[in-house]
Amino acid sequence: MDERYFQPEIETMGRHDLEALQLRRLKESIGAALRSPFYRTRYGGAGITPDSIRTLDDLRRLPFTTKDDLRGNYPFGLVAVPMDRVVRLHSSSGTTGNPTVICHSRHDLDCWANRVARCLYMVGVRDTDVFQNTSGYGMFTGGLGFQYGAERLGALTVPAAAGNTVRQIKFIRDFGTTVIHAIPSYVFRLYEVMRESGISPQTDTRLRTLVIGAEPHTEAQRRKIEESLGVKAYNSFGMSEMSGPGVAFECPEQDGLHIWEDSYIVEIIDPQTLEPVPDGGIGELVLTTLDREAMPLIRYRTRDLTRILPGECPCGRTHRRIDRIKGRSDDMFIVKGVNIFPMQIEKILMQFRELGTDYLITVDTVGNNDEVMVEVELGDLFTDDYSQLQRLTREITRQLKDEILVTPKVKLVDRGTLPKTDGKAIRVKDLRNNR
Amino acid sequence: MTIKQITVFLENKTGRLNDVAKVLGANNINMLAFCIAETVDFGLMRLIVHEVDKAVDVLRDAGFAVILTDVIAIHCDNRPGALSKILESLAENDIFIEYMYAFAQSERADVIINPNDLEKCVRILEEKHSDIL
Ligand SMILES: [Zn+2]
To answer: Could you tell me the pTM of the whole model?
Structure first.
């Protein structure tokens, strides 16, 4: 047996067999879904049955499921099994309106733990490892999700949960922690506190692997985490609607995240036209669960933007890879027929050391033309010479144009002057509809 | 002699200049001299104060982007022709002035100069004009 794979027969399954498996499971999922009040009405009313699906492409004719559907049928309208078979639910915080609730049977929890174990094993975690989870436990799926996955693998788990950095560091040292799961910003916090206490992550700890996710971060930030802690850091992708962590995960190649296609059918759609986007193009990720019995979701619009990375991965896994998440589809806007995502603009801006972190994109109609204005915070002043500042503005404009194919107007602004709502930065203001 | 000048980035938005003045005023920092250079999109305010470090701290805390630059400050008599004599000797020695500003009080004037070659400019002024700040 190949030591690199947790389930070699599934992870390296030929595409033909994998797609046959998907088709079989898709029919089962639709059959199961039809037992829920929500899908019985929506699909049953339209005459959709498992037999409506003869090929995987037939899935495209089925209606989407959205977060609003989950909210509108709160809490149990999508449950497809008798309630006595439901053993756990996870609920989102839901700041506005009803939260979203996901129900799990024993079978569902078992599959979920297996997927997370597969992810961890993929990046070299073994039963000899000590896995410390700094996620919040409780309703947040990053807690229990990683907990059961790491236990399934046989690692020694340290359910440290969130917060208390000094105690986290004590655990890391006393228990010989080798693997940590954390959000990127918390990794930097851990590192800072270690440094302040004179602890070297390289020589005073056994840390080797970091699992990072749940928070957008750049490749540069990942490299910084790896260098400062002397570890390898791997991207994790999941969402509570798809159970939680374990949906997609980076392999040792660190070039895209394998999405487990025995558990999910992946589609990338244009959020405007809802048509499929060819491999390599950015669009909204749409997922269909294939092995969830309590609450199957068919064509669930995740609102996350990403793309399928074309080509095979040298690691030997046949499950396709998605790129790191590029933002939310709600933030996409169209100028002169071009789909533009704020993440594209952010990626360019973050390459300029002279700039701060906040920016605002304003789209407006000037005369008969749509214009894009990008206001970006200056970091600290780096020159007393305004021609250098103008040169910086011109260089930002040029690079942005190369990326989004539209020439924006770039304006440098003071820190803290861009608008915020509830402490969160507003990224896009589209004024075109207000006229 | 050279002194530290504070340059503040100003968004071209009404009230930003007043914001700088307010922050400094609230912290009891007096501006000795300042000038503003503007383009369509932004401005740079250059200013001279006594408590440089404190001024930089309070401006940064208020969200302003600032940088410290070495500039030359000289006294010259507040009478016709005094400045021109200084400038002539600089021009003779190929010193190009990026920008300068001045303020006069009674019989003396203070002139702030940012030359293309700071060291050389200091040397020439020290040789020919003793009254550098
Ligand atoms: Zn791979």
So the answer is: 0.76
